[in-house]
Amino acid sequence: MKRYIIILILCFASSLYSQEIKGVVTNAKEQPIESVSIGSLNLVKPIGTSTNQKGEYSLSLQAGKEYSLRFSCIGYKDFDTTLILKNFQTTILNVTLMAESTTLQGVEVKGDYSRQEGITRISSDWAKNTAGPNGGVENVIKTIEGVSSNNELSSQYSVRGGNFDENLVYVNDIEIFRPVLVRSGQQEGLSFINPDMISDIQFSSGGFAAEYGDKMSSVLDIKYRKPVEFSGNLSIGLLGGGVYLADKIKDKFTYQFSYRNKTTKYLLNSLETQGDYNTTFHDFQTYLTWDINEKLDLSFVGNIADNTYEFIPQNRETDFGDINNPLKFKVYFDGKEKDKFSSMFGALKLNYKLKPDLHLKFITSAYSTNEKETYDIQGQYWLSQAAGLTSEEDYDLGIGTYIEHARNNLRLSLFNFEHKGEKYYANGVLSWGIKYQREVTSDKLNEWKMVDSADYSIPSNRDEIGIYNPPEAPNLQDWYHSKNDINSNRLTLFVQRHLSWQKEKGTYFLNLGARGQYWDFNKEFFPSPRVSLAYKPKIKQDILFRFASGIYVQYPFYREYRNLIGEINSEVKSQKSLHFVLSSDWNFKIRTRNFKLTSSLYYKHLWDLIPYYIDNLRLRYTAENNAKGYATGMDIKLFGEFIKGIDSWLTLSLMQTKQDIDGDGKGYVARPTDQLVNVSVSFQDYLPSMPWMRVYLNFNYGSGYPFFVPNTNIELYRPNYMRADLAFTFRIKEEEASWAKKNFLKALKRIWLNVEWLNVFNNKNIVAYTYIKDNNNIVYPVPNYLTPSLLNAKITVEF
Predict the structure, then answer these.
(1) Where are the alpha helices (DSSP H) in 13-144?
(2) Is 551:516 a contact under the CB 8 Å cutoff?
């Protein structure tokens, strides 16, 4: 009970010694500006807020201390000011921002239509400070409405009934790809997205515009920043560390360099499978920009990732079942696994401002990955009924041996050439793009499993009981063997027009667009029209309504057209989805605090689906377009100042997704990503009387995913997933700390310590199952549990 009381005190306590500053932010025409960011610059963890539709803001700060405040908004010049708040006095500060053509940190925007397009904008500070073993942008995305995940070891997520492969990720207009062969969170390295380099994060969970690519579920759009002065940091912790450097040189060049290292040995040693874990994940990334002249600028994004997962298992002991039937599973291992995932990525982008209202982009990029998966592991297992209500001692149910073998190697190279353009009008923007992609794939697959239970192999070669033919080798389970070399080309194009106009009763925002792709491997072209209409009524309440619909076409990538045994289907077609999304976005105040309530109802009709099976993180496709289905649900998010001056949010999602596979005789059954309920909370708190500490909470609850026991028609659901992570951030040194002015620490801006309490409630969450048969040929799904409650720590030095 004490644990819960401490958590509540730390997360929800607030100080009585804070004072309020408020005002209105307008432009030169005295028109209010919405979504202006206001924050303190001289705190390690800046306390900030943003303006509402009327340009109003309010911020709670500790009295008697000097604060440097910055007002910033895309399309406007920054406004900085310094002030000291007095006790028991509300300070009024009205600000006028002057327009400019470019935004903060080099992101050029002529108009921000994220709200009208159903886009969620996320502060980059959240990506740096979110609690969890992975951290980063994806850890924040998992708490957004419509998004779910049941594996804290992985950065992957599913959106509104889609799978991991249905999510788009862009960095500076360039699509990002991830490794193909990764099958578990233990193998997964660092995310491509580096939180230190980010200026802007946008996310859509469906109904997005035609400018975004050919996936069926979601889009994550990241912009890297252009530094304006020298900065850097050095971090080290139990799960790895990194170095980051950034600077601007002679008003022409900027650079960002980053090296990150991740090790999950500390986490993996807490799992039930004991052994020698040797995991090393390295990531080097750079972002360079060159302002050639007023019309031309050139930028380069580069990344090298080298990830190694080596594991020598020793033993495993898992208790499962219930009080009436307690079961125990023991395994002793021989052998080892060694996997290596190496990738390189480079992209060059030229921006040409031909005219003030005509911007052209020319992009070329290349991605190469070399993935090797090798293991030979033998496990000798005992399945028993543990002593309990029905037995005074353990009772053996089954004994046997299994061997797993793999020699898999995938080499994949992608080459892209792309042009995008934007023409600005008084009432909106015309956008277009064309892209050519060359794919070169070489794949060798050799994987099998053999199970020997009670002195005979499963499946066995016995034709009759008691008769065995020794010369005949035992059958192998899950045997995949193939060699494929494939070259293909894709041509993609899109066009869209954004319009806005005002009427007597409100303002309308319309986005019309279409995109299409031709792939010479299967000779398919299918158009993808999309439309959205937003309406903001001219009423006292700041509310916006939006309807979006469109056809979202997902052309097969390598995994989709390779079947369960490794064969290639050259006739496989794209999967298709028709979206209908109705949403509302309401900004309001509760006792002068800003809040936003968003809600969505959606229905997705799915056809030409390629059925798949989830093996931990790996998706195994049948490579046949022989299914249809649907996904429908509701998402709600409440975002705002639960604690004065800082933002938090909570979300609720209800969803159902089903599919009907031709010829299986089952009719509509739950898809592997069907999840009825998902609840997420991202909360932060601070004590004005203790400005050196801040608390971040991530909480997720999700009902269980369905799964079928292999070779049966038995459908089961995993237990519910629930996890809470807490992060405590302690500021050791401030930039202006007087005690450090006369020693070597004066060269450092800030020093802060991050301590995380992972899986606070120590929930035993299940990621997958191992299937074992007893002596009576009864199948038992043995749960594979995720990480228990742990502590993590990291120290960061900023300079």
Answers:
(1) 124-129, 136-141
(2) no
The pair of three-digit structure tokens given for residue 438, joined into one six-digit string: 């060359």
Specify the pairing of strand 95-96 against strand 18-26: parallel
In the prediction, which pLDDT does 474 show?
54
568: Cβ–Cβ under 8 A, 6 or more apart, which residues?
A: 482, 484, 486, 561, 562, 623
pLDDT digits (tens, 9 = 90+) for 333-392: 999 999 999 999 999 999 999 998 999 999 999 999 999 999 999 999 999 888 766 666
What type of residue sits at position 399? Answer: I
Report which of 622, 628, 779 is spatially closest to residue 711, judged by C-alpha positions: 779
Residue 750 has a pLDDT of 84
Pairing of strands 167-171, 218-224: parallel
Instruction: Give the whole-number percent of the chain exceeding pLDDT 90.
Output: 54
Q: What's the angle, vertex CA 496, arms to CA 359 and CA 108, rounded to 5?
A: 35
> What per-residue string of b and e applies to 342-369 under the rule 16 or more CB within 10 Å gives b?
bbbbbbbbbbebeeeeebbbebebebeb
Please name the amino acid found at residue 70. R
Q: What is the pTM of this model?
A: 0.83
Nearest one of 62, 58, 61 to 50, comparing CA atoms: 58
Residue with tokens 């997704």: 657
- The length of the chain is 799
Tell me the C-alpha distance between 418 and 170, whole Å. 14
Distance CA 106, CA 255 (A): 12
Task: Give the burial class of 262: count Cβ atoms within 10 A of its Cβ; 0-12 exposed, 13-18 middle, 19 or more buried.
Answer: buried
CA angle 167, 171, 175 (to 5 degrees): 50
Q: What is the largest CA-CA distance in the chain?
A: 94
Task: With beta carbons less than 8 A apart as the criterion, state whether 490 and 439 touch.
Answer: yes
Long-range (24+ apart) CB contacts under 8 A made by 618-621 are: 618/181, 618/182, 618/183, 618/184, 619/163, 619/164, 619/165, 619/559, 620/564, 621/559, 621/560, 621/561, 621/562, 621/563, 621/564
3-state secondary structure of 637: strand
pLDDT at 532: 96
Q: How many CB atoms lie within 10 A of CB 199?
A: 17
Tokens of 100: 């400019």
**Residue 426 backbone class (left: φ over 0; alpha: ψ -120 to 50; beta: rest):** alpha
